[in-house]
Amino acid sequence: MKKILCISPSMNTGGAETFLMKIYRKLNHDEYHFDFCVSSKTPGFYDEEIRSYGSNIFYVRPKTQSFKQFKKDLKNVLKSDSYDAVYRCGATGFMAIDLWVAKKCGVKIRAFRSTNAGTTENKLRQVFNVLTRRLLTSVCNVKIAPSMLAAEYTFGKRVAHKKVHVINNGIDIEVYKFSKHNSEEIKRKLNIENKKVFLHVGRFVEQKNHAFLIDIFAKYLEKHNDAVLVLIGEGPLKEKVCNLIESYGIQNNVIFLPITGHVEEYLHAADVLLLPSLFEGMPNVVVEAQCSGLPCIVSDTVTREANIINLVQFCSINDSKQWVEKMETTCRGSNSELFAQKMKEAGYDITDTSKSFIDALFNN
Fold it and tell me: Are residues 101 and 166 in the same domain?
């Protein structure tokens, strides 16, 4: 049995954590065992499922709290079992410290997966990230990214095009295949049967650019009042977004929903996915939406690799008028159930992704 220790701030429903869980579900647990190492004491969304597989969740003190204690805690975890590999996900070289500790403890395979293609950090921190890139590339001997844009941001262009495994954000194709039944059930549940439904899935953080999202939706409502915006997620800026919605006076047209393990049902019920993010590595929700036959309007900062089967349109976040025009002319087609097969043919089946992930780690 191969044992892998996966390090993440927590095991919540972020894209990186969800990617990891999708892979773990598909693996033969008699052949591959994952343990998890987190730095948050708050229970994560996936904790119960993780433990149901017989996996451990270890807590280590955050390195920002005490680097000495963090190093001690991580060493103790690494020495508690014979791990064949350590896996860390993130966007910057600062996380290379985790793999440096693993190297010191004798772990042979040290994998790092880029999760993003940008940052909202200040200039000083951005410079620090570039400076630590060399440490990252030297301590991690397996480099993974969901897109070439994310690979270039994290590892640098020279390394990205030579030594990085670009592995698709695979999904369970049958789960996300459009279901008319799901669509009708959700619309009835939310009382939005006769509305045009715009959907956004993402944490309430600066990266997701909710202020712009609310602005363009308010502009759309000036001409078309038969629309709703469904927001799925949690995060530190949620209250601020609520206040902004009230200031526009559009609260009756916005629906907040908590994090769900069945986002596919809402993808089926929507007419358009909106994603005006400041940056993304390879957004999971855009992959999932396309499998559901849901057209997407996303910011032009998102990698063009996200347009897998021609359901994605790119707009500048400096041009709200362009977004509103796209929102007016874009809607789900009548053949949504056909796109699942196209996604499978494009290499986005999670079974293939899981195989690619294991091959990158152990057949590198």
Answer: yes
